[in-house]
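Input sequence (125 aa), recorded before submission:
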Amino acid sequence: MEMPESAAARLSATISRSTRPPPQQAQLYHRLENGTSQTFALGHLQQSSGELWGQPARGSSIPSVKAYTGPLPAGRQGIEFTTPVLPAPNKPPRDALWYYGHQPGVTLNAQGFAVIKITVTKRVP
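Predicted structure, token format:
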């Protein structure tokens, strides 16, 4: 039995809506301000450039960008940001790491730093 075109269109639209995954909210990450690797001036530069840079972690030779998952904690100084680049899997839940050569979207700049594109959503101070 063939359905009238309007009924078929409504059924198709209903099925499409029910099987489409819900839109995901952007994951928030943060870096805490400190006297060396995340200064106030660097936070300003990261906000204006839309980039977050990183060097190899201790004991590694792979350039990587490091941050914490979740929003910037209340009362703390630093930056809160989103990025379209997924962090490395299988890391501790609070750590977010992006390795050059291991995650699509992580680039290497002329100075040898790993770089990801970010959008700063909050900067304190």
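Checked by second reader. Residues 29-124 form one domain.
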